[in-house]
């Protein structure tokens, strides 16, 4: 047999059998299974001869369809409306976009049937987030069907469904275990945040409360009220400045006091350091609300012992009204900073004490050999090491003090009153003002705007400072 005769033999057919691309449908274009799965979940896997994967993806699709049909009223005839006939998803999205169309009226027998805009918004968000999670599975189904077909057409080996799921389990075990927590975060954390954001774009306030009234979308009207109306803008500007000053001073003072206490307790000249450390940790062990209420009683202008002691010692001619004197608001602010110092310095004392215990003694020995004194040792050894370690926590402490609701509200209740402010006092922070706007005055839309402003300010400051922190950059 000649070489020419040998080359004419069909040698290509046996070579394809080990890879067996024909077993999954030879010649099928790669996009076809992807399009099929996009229309009916799992159908692309079925075209690829992967029944187990097809059943897996189809179960999500069937579950969503059955849920929608079972929760709706799709057998009521031809007059279909999302409000009357829609199920969980259809009516949920309809309610999210419209916030209801039928108001309720008060009659002798009570409120008539109608729409509750806030309930519709909440249900719509739940439906939207559920669809978002299902969309992840849908995209997974489409991409898997198309990629697997493309791999087969390129000569890849077939893969049975059990082998695929085993490979996914082994390769993505961490993500599979974390996924239930992710679902909980979506509905327990993301959902309330989105709800608050949406309320900021509505007219939901004390003059327009469900279920009697319908809430409407108003766009950026609430933002214009805060930043354009003079009275609101003056209140927001004044409270914002005080909040920033408060957060900065509260963080710096507690850190400085804690650092000083930790350095003193680390000195060999201090006897019984454990006893001193335990005593100084007591303010941190007592609940902050209890301490704030005790200090509030002590500094009470009418009955508090502090004002009486000052009068008895002859330092003042009359009792000082620390929290209620509108002509001296800085008195209340100073007391608030003092109380926060009392509550906050033990944390930094314990934190810095742990850092100091891990600094090698050889650093200080080398410094003493070079002639460095205690101040130079503190400046060039202790302080840089401590700052490098605690800087991320300083940023978090700033964020905590920015939103330190407990100290201000339970100590001063935002007082003293300020005639130039709307629904706020001279010591109110943005977060306490937000509390008064929502719970005390039921201005939910304005409160939602304030929560967005707080989030943007705190988030921006945190990101900028953490990115500049060396300890974070080295992670």
TrEMBL record:
Domain ABC transmembrane type-1: 240-465
Keywords tagged on the record: Cell membrane, Membrane, Sugar transport, Transmembrane, Transmembrane helix, Transport
Function: Part of the ABC transporter complex MalEFGK involved in maltose/maltodextrin import. Probably responsible for the translocation of the substrate across the membrane.
Biased composition (Low complexity): 13-27
GO molecular function: ABC-type maltose transporter activity
Cited Gene3D superfamilies: MetI-like (1.10.3720.10)
Transmembrane segments: 54-76, 118-140, 172-202, 239-266, 278-299, 334-359, 389-411, 443-466
Any one Gene Ontology cellular component term annotated for this protein: maltose transport complex
UniProt family annotation: Belongs to the binding-protein-dependent transport system permease family. MalFG subfamily.
GO biological process: maltodextrin transmembrane transport
Biased composition (Polar residues): 1-10
This protein's record includes keyword Chloroplast: no
Protein name: Maltose/maltodextrin transport system permease protein
Disordered as annotated region, ranges: 1-27
